[in-house]
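Hi everyone, sorry if this is the wrong subforum. Our group has a chain we'd like a structural model of before ordering constructs, and none of us has done structure prediction before. Sequence below.
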Amino acid sequence: MELLKTEKVNKTDVNIEIDQTVSGIVFLSLLLRDKIMAKVANLISPEKSCPYIFVMSHFEEFAYNNMTNLSKTAIDFLKNNRKLHKYALMCYTHL
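Answer:
Right subforum, don't worry. Here is the predicted structure as tokens:
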């Protein structure tokens, strides 16, 4: 709700550390109040993590459960390509 108040006064009491790599997931975790996402985005976790590696670690299971006609070569490429997961997550969070 604090973020909604920014329209009127152009400032908020919510402290957010913004960086260019995970700003989308930071805002999304705040808006959704999602603790797992906030931990992955390094908002509430004492250990640093990488959101893209987190997504990569779940990709193979997701692919086999939701996609058809997948080759082993395609799966290996998709599950190990950090840059691909980075761009996909950035596109998803900025839509």
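For your construct planning: The chain has two domains: 1-47, 50-95. The helical segments are 6-9, 23-32, 35-40, 51-66, 72-80, 82-94.
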